[in-house]
Amino acid sequence: MVENAPQHPPQQPQQPQSAPPYPPQSAPPQSAPPYLPQQAQPASRAVWPWLVGGLVVLLCLCGVVGVGGFLFYQARDETTAGPAVDPALPPVTADNWREALTSIDGVRDYFSAGTLSQQHAPGPVDYPQRPPVGGEHYLEWQTCTGMVYDLPIAPERAVHSMEHGAVWITYHLSLDAAQVRRLAELVSGRDYLMLSPFPEQDAKISVQAWGYQLKVDNADDPRIAAFIKAARVNAAPEPGAPCSGGSTATGPLPAAGTAT
Question: Of 233, 226, 231, 169, which is closest to residue 201 (Cα–Cα)?
Fold first, then answer.
């Protein structure tokens, strides 16, 4: 009897090992970092010098314009503010205004003739001076807040305004229109001043305050401004009384007993 040979599992054929690729693959070469040029200065730094320079130029221009504007308006005010004050007039105070006023050449002092009445009159008053410088007057005053009246006003109201401290400038109807404009520029908008024509006066221009008067021929006479500086408000026998709230009517008062 033949013995069976031991059975072995069939041998699996060995797979041949694949040879590594040739040439051997190597890792991809690393590329060199790109060339970076030197970093440029930020744009803001480059702009700063221009901004600073422009600002300096702008400030200089503003200064020039400002100074030029100031000089322009100062010159304009000097040309529209009316006559210049007499440089010989001493500084005016509440204590020396009377001496300053009477030191102006041509000023007449009517106080030397006696005290001016401050009584109220019911109608028209016959004044010894034309224009008047004080005395009896109407109950209602003329508004004197820098008013320029193109027509004559009642002297009885104007005298009441002077009692409050106003300076009343009057002119003859024959005065040149340019001269009238100069007087209007001097008066307009200034409290305790008023301007009106006065047909009966003998001078081209007359300037009145309570008890004082100055007559001149030219609106550019510096004595006008000197008179105003000394007498305005100071000459008031009723200091502190207003110039506002009065009448703005023109023309004479009605006869006594019919005035309203």
Answer: 169
Give one DSSP letter per residue of 221-237, joined into a string. -HHHHHHHHHHTTTT-S
Rounded to 5°, the CA angle 158-256-211 comes to: 30
Give the span between the Cα atoms of 151 and 60, in whole angstroms.
51
With cut-offs at 50, 70 and 90, classify the pLDDT of residue 196: very high
Q: Tokens 């409290």 appear where?
A: 191
pLDDT digits (tens, 9 = 90+) for 139-167: 999 999 999 999 999 999 999 999 999 99
In this prediction the pTM is 0.67
Token pair belonging to 115: 């005290």
Number of Cα atoms under 13 Å in the Cβ half of residue 18 = 3
Helix (H, G, I), strand (E, B) or coil at 212: strand
What digits encode the pLDDT tens for the residues 78-104? 434 445 445 566 789 989 999 999 999
Q: Which residues pair with 247 in a beta bridge?
A: 142
Task: Give exposure, 102-129, as e/b (b: 16+ Cβ within 10 Å).
Answer: eebeebeebeeeeebeeeebeebbebee
Q: Is 188 exposed, middle or buried (0-12, 13-18, 19+ CB in 10 A)?
A: middle
